[in-house]
Design a protein that fits this description.
six-stranded mixed sheet, single chain, alpha+beta, 256 residues, Deoxyribonuclease I, Chain A
Length: 256
């Protein structure tokens, strides 16, 4: 099973790039963030992806929004998409495939309302724990807007007190993972200090790989133990984030 996540920074601006990437890699699960479009605003090529069950969860005003897409070949039964009670500003969508929960999340950046970010992250901690307490498994992917450690941000960006690196948000991030998740990319590449997923547009930061790692694929321990690869497609696309894709050695119909 392959699971991909990408903050597209506006799906209408990235329509052609998304379709090109999707058709090249055909992930079983696709999680998008910051789609910045309602269902009514989607181009026809995106509104109906014939090989996928899709939920586009966007709000008016061109802000935020997430989507979740499950390949019909892998998930033959139509899933029920839903949103946890703490969802606001169209930031999380989930689907159940038997005992497996798949979710796409866009945690607030915190620059405009830092308290709202902490509140959302605290709710995420409970969300992860509740799923595991219920005996279910989870693959949670998306833009989480926190660099877990100083190894996840290039030293040129790591300024004292900068949002995305503060102790309180990092503590909440660790508490979320402690609820039963593993960080797949870091688990497979623990010593890489240049493993980034986001770069500012200025000063050729992307070309020089001067970035942050804030996009994650997190999985319950039993699933993460079967991860075989996690790739960052740094050179693809014009979003300030790169697509990330993990591969899991899971049998067909896992979770069903």
């Amino acid at each position: 099973m392959t699971v991909a996540t990408w903050n597209v920074n506006g799906i209408r601006a990235r329509e052609t790039q998304f379709i090109k990437w999707m058709e090249a890699h055909r992930p079983d699960v696709i999680c998008l963030q910051e789609i910045k479009a309602t269902t009514e605003q989607l181009p026809a090529s995106l509104a109906d992806l014939p090989d996928y069950w899709s939920c586009w969860h966007g709000a008016s005003g061109g802000y935020s929004g997430v989507s979740l897409h499950l390949k019909k070949e892998t998930f033959p039964e139509k899933p029920v998409f839903s949103h946890p009670p703490f969802d606001h500003e169209t930031r999380i969508v989930q689907a159940a495939a038997g005992n497996l929960i798949l979710a796409s999340v866009y945690i607030p950046n915190g620059g405009k309302d830092y308290d709202a970010k902490l509140k959302f992250m605290a709710a995420m901690e409970g969300y992860v724990s509740d799923i595991h307490d219920a005996g279910q498994e989870l693959i949670l992917s998306g833009d989480m807007n926190v660099a877990r450690t100083d190894d996840d941000i290039h030293p040129t960006h790591n300024k004292p007190g900068i949002i995305g690196t503060r102790p309180d948000e990092r503590e909440l991030m660790e508490r979320m993972f402690a609820g039963g998740l593993d960080d797949v990319a870091r688990m497979l590449d623990p010593d890489n200090k240049r493993l980034f997923t986001w770069w500012p547009y200025w000063r050729s930061a992307r070309e020089r790989n001067l970035g942050w790692r804030i996009d994650y694929i997190a999985a319950s321990h039993a699933i993460a133990a079967r991860a075989t690869a996690c790739m960052v497609f740094r050179e693809f696309g014009s979003s300030d984030h790169a697509p990330v894709m993990a591969t899991f050695d899971l049998p067909a119909g896992y979770g069903g």
